[in-house]
Design goal:
By secondary structure, this protein is mostly helical. It has helices at 13-33, 40-61. The protein has 2 helices and no strands. The longest helix has 22 residues, at 40-61. The two termini are 17 Å apart. Keywords: Membrane, Transmembrane, Transmembrane helix.
Amino acid sequence: MSSEHVPTSRPRGGTVVWGVLLTLTGLAVLAVGLGVALDVQAVLIVLLAVGGVGMLVSALVRRPEEPPQD
């Protein structure tokens, strides 16, 4: 067996937040296309708030990268 440390690949917090925002935007567009009445200003405010909180949380819970071990 090898004792080498294999780094795990995790998505960056910002990438996840942008993915969630794009998904929510797509769902809102689909809802409007299906005839659901949405207040566009309120939807945009909520999207910005979710994005901002998501970025803050991802920055706070991000683990520092470990230095490479020889």
